[in-house]
């Protein structure tokens, strides 16, 4: 029954400190599939017992490697690679959300504020120019009458 046992493991890298669950299962719907399983890491036994689940608590980069499982009477799974990523350096935390919101508000709000002030100044100056023209025009009309 080669190939009938499958190890379910994370497809994507996991981060240090997380718990990882490995599950050993029979690929076919064979009711004779046993419950007892043995797990291997890099070819060395990593755990066994009744049940088909192995939980790796608080993983580290040392837990990275090839994992496989065997169900007695049903066969052994192909090896599956588990990748563990280290934690990011403590000094390089990503920017906090409030920092990003402040930056967003500055980038959006400042051009709006500048445009509003410019329009206000132009409108104010336009009013003075219009009143000067009106006065001059009015004076000329009065003078020409």
From TrEMBL:
InterPro entries: Ig-like_dom, Ig-like_dom_sf, Ig-like_fold, Ig_sub. The chain crosses the membrane at residues 102-123. Keywords: Membrane, Transmembrane, Transmembrane helix. SMART domains: IG. The keyword Transmembrane helix applies. The keyword DNA-binding does not apply. Residues 3-83 form the Ig-like domain. This is Ig-like domain-containing protein. The lineage of its organism: Eukaryota, Metazoa, Chordata, Craniata, Vertebrata.
